[in-house]
């Protein structure tokens, strides 16, 4: 087992759920508002980290220290990386105010100078290191991470960061995109796939342009995608062909036109999907509008889960379904969730994923039948 510090993204609870699902053999040391320290059997490098949608950094554990010993320990670690030349380094603090960085960095530089070490910290305006900054020093320098918990610090060195450029390329440069069907972020697609928690083939019954299929292929999963719209399937085929050319993958996929509320004869081991989120909205929704918006969606998902029950396959179902931000400040879920549970689908996870300013967010569910 190895110990790692994971820095979580904008939805920490979802990030932690993803980590626990992807690494079932784990032991959590401690978790904070923006990090989790855990033992896992897998080795984390950049390639493995690229399969995590919810975390922004991973650091390999070095030492746990008392607060008063932090500067000395950080200096000792940097000393071991010094090779008779100017040392570039960065430091990021989590679990505490970022304002603490300034005094720590200045004291650390003073200690290194006293030890005869020529050094330069790259923290811009005394802020935590960004992914882009880490890439600039990853080959010739080091980033240290220290997370605070109850007067102690857990210290590690960064081994991987979120590849923003690759996400952006897959999101914006793929040949087929449609704003009308909604745009699932590749990070969310990765999270949904990891949350299934089982190996084998994954079926996306509402695959649209194929975002989830693409991410599954990059993660080495066998994928099957279906959609009622022929144009969407044609677009998904273009996107997966583009993915294989630009990123390379040996995994296989099937893409076919199918109504998800009707019998499905293909074999699969898990289901993951983002369904129809309804008509796009640029502002919060009035209460009297909600019934019209949600009624058709409730009916669609009830019919889909009824169909799953007929198939009689006991597989995990991970779904991103819409919730609505009303003008009175409340969040409203789809009414069909209660009906789905009454059918015998046990809800084992329910977390929210949304962006600031969005009128429609995503509720992430995991059901077991």
Say how many strands there are. Answer: 16
Mean pLDDT: 91
- Number of helical stretches of at least 4 residues: 11
Major sheet attributes? 8 strands, mixed
Shape: elongated
How many domains, as an integer? Answer: 2
CATH classification, class level of the largest domain:
Alpha Beta
Structural class: alpha/beta
As a percent range, the share of strand residues is 25-35%
Unreliably modeled segments: none
List the strand order in the largest sheet. Answer: 2-3-1-4-8-7-5-6
Topology:
Blueprint: E1 2-8, H1 12-22, E2 26-31, E3 35-40, H2 46-49, E4 55-66, H3 70-81, E5 87-94, H4 101-114, E6 119-121, H5 131-137, E7 141-149, E8 152-161, H6 164-172, H7 186-195, E9 202-204, H8 211-218, E10 223-227, H9 230-246, E11 253-257, E12 270-274, H10 287-311, E13 317-325, E14 331-333, H11 336-342, E15 346-353, E16 360-368
Parallel strand pairs: 5-6, 5-7, 9-10, 9-12, 10-11, 12-13
Antiparallel strand pairs: 1-3, 1-4, 2-3, 4-8, 7-8, 13-14, 13-16, 15-16
Helix pairs in contact: 1-7, 3-4, 7-8, 10-11
């Amino acid at each position: 087992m190895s110990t790692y510090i994971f820095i979580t993204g904008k939805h920490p609870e979802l990030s932690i759920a993803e980590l626990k699902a992807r690494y079932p053999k784990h032991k959590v040391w401690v978790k904070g508002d923006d990090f989790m320290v855990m033992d896992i059997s897998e080795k984390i490098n950049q390639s493995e980290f690229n399969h995590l949608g919810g975390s922004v950094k991973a650091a390999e554990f070095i030492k746990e220290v008392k607060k008063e010993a932090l500067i000395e320990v950080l200096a000792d670690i940097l000393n071991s990386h010094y090779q008779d030349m100017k040392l570039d380094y960065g430091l990021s603090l989590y679990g505490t105010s970022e304002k603490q960085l300034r005094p720590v960095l200045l004291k650390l530089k003073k200690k290194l100078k006293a030890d005869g070490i020529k050094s330069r910290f790259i923290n811009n305006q005394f802020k935590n290191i960004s992914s882009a900054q880490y890439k600039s020093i990853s080959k010739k320098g080091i980033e240290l991470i220290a997370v605070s918990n109850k007067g102690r610090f857990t210290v590690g060195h960064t081994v991987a960061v979120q590849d923003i450029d690759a996400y952006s390329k897959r999101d914006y440069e793929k040949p087929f995109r449609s704003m009308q069907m909604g745009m699932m972020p590749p990070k969310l697609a990765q999270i949904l796939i990891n949350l299934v928690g089982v190996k084998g083939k994954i079926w996306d019954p509402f695959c649209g342009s194929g975002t989830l299929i693409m991410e599954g292929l990059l993660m080495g999963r066998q994928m099957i995608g279906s959609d009622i719209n022929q144009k969407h399937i044609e677009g998904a085929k273009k996107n997966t062909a583009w993915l294989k050319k630009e990123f390379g993958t040996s995994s296989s996929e099937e893409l076919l036109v199918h109504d998800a509320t009707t019998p499905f004869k293909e074999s699969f081991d898990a289901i993951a999907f983002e369904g129809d989120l309804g008509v796009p909205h640029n502002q919060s929704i009035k209460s009297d509008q909600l019934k019209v918006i949600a009624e058709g969606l409730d009916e669609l998902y009830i019919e889909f889960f009824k169909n799953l029950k007929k198939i009689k396959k006991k597989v995990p179902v991970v779904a991103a379904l819409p919730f609505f931000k009303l003008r009175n400040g409340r969040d409203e879920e789809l009414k069909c969730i209660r009906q789905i549970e009454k059918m015998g689908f046990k809800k084992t996870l329910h977390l929210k994923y949304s962006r600031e300013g969005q009128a429609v967010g995503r509720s992430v569910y995991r059901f077991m039948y």
